[in-house]
Amino acid sequence: MAEAHQAVAFQFTVTPDGIDLHLCHEALRQIYLSGIHSWKKRFIRFKNGVMTGVYPGSPSGLLVVLVGYMSTTKYAKIDPSLGMFTKLSKHLPISKYVTEEGQRVVGGVLIGTGLWIAVTFVMRNVLKYLLSWHGWMFNRHGSLNLKTKIWLVLVKLFSGPKPMLYSFQSSLPRLPVPPVKDTVRRYLESARPLMDDEQYKRMEGLAKDFEKNLGPRLQWYLKLKSWWASNYVSDWWEEYIYLRGRGPIMVNSNYYAMDFLYVIPTTRQAARAGNSIHAIMMYRRKLDRAQIKPLMVLNTIPMCSSQYERMFNTSRVPGVETGRASLSPASLRNQSAFRLIIIKKYFKYHIPWAKARSQFFSRGKNKQSLDAVEKAAFFVSLDDTEQRYDPENPVQSLDSYGKSLLHGKCHDRWFDKSFNLIVFKNGTMGLNAEHSWADAPVVSHLWEHVLSSDPVRLGYTEDGHCKGNPHPNLLGPQRLQWDIPEECQAVISSSLKVAKALADDVDMHIIPFNDFGKGLIKKCKTSPDGFIQIALQLAHFRDKGKFCLTYEASMTRLFREGRTETVRSCTTQTCDFVRAMMNDKREEKLKLLKVAAEKHQDLYRLAMTGDGIDRHLFCLYLVSKYLGEDSAFLKEVLSEPWRLSTSQTPLQQLDLFDLKRHPEFVTSGGGFGPVADDGYGVSYIILGEDLINFHISSKHSSPETDSHRFGSNIRKAMLDILDLFQLDNKANNK
């Protein structure tokens, strides 16, 4: 077999004259280069570990302290150890071999190093104390008060120069546990617009009983965990929300990211795949070296970077009761060769997949091939369909594109991998990402790098090929070998049937909303996110004739190992505005809109600063289960369905995209499947000043939902709310 010959560095034959060795010099050369590369990576990791470990101090800072300290004490004729080293030297056997000058130098080094450690320790703890204050979040939108400005200066002063990706991890504060009383109060406030008087009175009774009796005992355990663990939520959230989920992760958990909306840099599939893989590996190189800048709010306030650690060489491994996120040791080695993965069908339901994995894929060549997939950096799917935005048929083309990225043909993606790079036949591409290891902003950070590198820094030749010449000795693809018996094929066919039914039920609709964007919303003196969320509430009420529990994802990455929190966007204030839109006067609508927008912003700030509702209630519920204590209040709260689940995809690296000069290089954002069988999933991305892309999903099987109808209602709601401000009239009056 050809691949077997490629795997050895030498051959030998036995002759009457002895053993005749035939060395392959190119193979030995590659082994040598791999070793050099490996040792370089180890050194870089060690160096970065030291730099991160002493941050906000630095080795150069230590050198400055030592030189300055020693120079001062030498010319001032001062014993830097204040006699301590002389006293200690009497008890040290080495002291008689060290001159008095040498003792002075050693004492200076010890005292100087101690001083540097003390300064670094103080700076780190002062920085952690500063970052524990979140009053800056509650400034009026678009302005900073004097206290916040002084605080920002202090944060910059104690942050140190040139931080690397993980520099701030030890300085980030821990996620606080909110008081039970506050969480219960906020929950009741969020539940009020969704209940009639009788329902609310009953829930209020359950809540007050929980707050008085069981709640404080459960809270004690959470407090204990918050003191001991880095984050009292994240590990339980990953295990119980993601890894213990027994349903298909395709559609129900995984999410996708799209290519540029209007252009395809090349129509050659292999070339697009080559450049994209190159860009991803360049990103990985920076990630290995911690050279990616940490995400900073206001260019000053760091956010947690822990989720980046499992971006590559990670796969979700299914189990009968719970899965696990497996980080392959291969992530610590050089991956210089690519493998062509050939497998026709795949399991989409975790319990059958876990059992079949144990029975059919735990030994022999099946295990070797499966290991090759799960230990790979990421998965590449060369799709045989053509997808792109077609101006002649915008609705159907984008809907088809979104569905293909979300689930494909159900057997041409490896949904358990950290992410799949999907390249279509006509050169369009996208990502499908598994959710347990990280949230969408982390994947978006990688994707922004790929999109900005592909057409500009890497580029293509005039005929659409990658620039440069292929390496003459590059190893060819290796076909993975599988042995699928009939019994296994029956399980595969059954799982594929389940997956296809799930995929066919997805009703996907994507809207490039270009009537207006962030530019006009800002003129309304309203938060763009608040404006859109209120528009979604108005659209939903018009769509279904009622309000529903609404999930908006926010980040808690201001805290160490923070992930997400929920903003309950359906508020009493928002409902009042929506009802007013039915028949009230314009002035009353504007007044209620302002109140609703301010309420939404307050909820978003509370969620980001650790005072959200849902993660606290989730952890209280888990503790109650561990203790064997039933809570009618917690059980009802956590069983309430999210019939409208929303999320904003942030554009984080604005410096990579010059949308004013190159508006054609605008991304489409990404989306996810519906959370409830009778609900909607809505993702949106705000691009530049004039474009907002919406990704809407629901299920065909639900008589209550229709993604295209909801999309029309969203467009109408956005335009109706903007019309309240009469911006055209104001411009004319000027």
TrEMBL record:
Choline/carnitine acyltransferase domain mapped to chain residues: 175-335, 352-715
Membrane topology label: Multi-pass membrane protein
Annotated TM spans: 50-70, 105-127
Positions of the catalytic residues: 435 (proton acceptor)
Gene Ontology MF term list: carnitine O-palmitoyltransferase activity
Ribonucleoprotein found in the keyword field: no
One Pfam family linked to the record: Carn_acyltransf
One GO cellular component term noted in the UniProt record for this chain: membrane
Residues of the Carnitine O-palmitoyltransferase N-terminal domain: 1-47
Compartments reported by the entry: Membrane
InterPro entries: Carn_acyl_trans, CAT-like_dom_sf, Cho/carn_acyl_trans, Cho/carn_acyl_trans_2, CPT_N
Keyword vocabulary terms for this entry: Acyltransferase, Fatty acid metabolism, Lipid metabolism, Membrane, Transferase, Transmembrane, Transmembrane helix
A Gene Ontology BP annotation from the UniProt entry: fatty acid beta-oxidation
PANTHER family named among the record's database cross-references: CARNITINE O-ACYLTRANSFERASE, CARNITINE O-PALMITOYLTRANSFERASE 1, BRAIN ISOFORM
Family: Belongs to the carnitine/choline acetyltransferase family.
Annotated protein name in UniProt: Carnitine O-palmitoyltransferase 1, liver isoform-like
Taxonomic placement: Eukaryota, Metazoa, Chordata, Craniata, Vertebrata
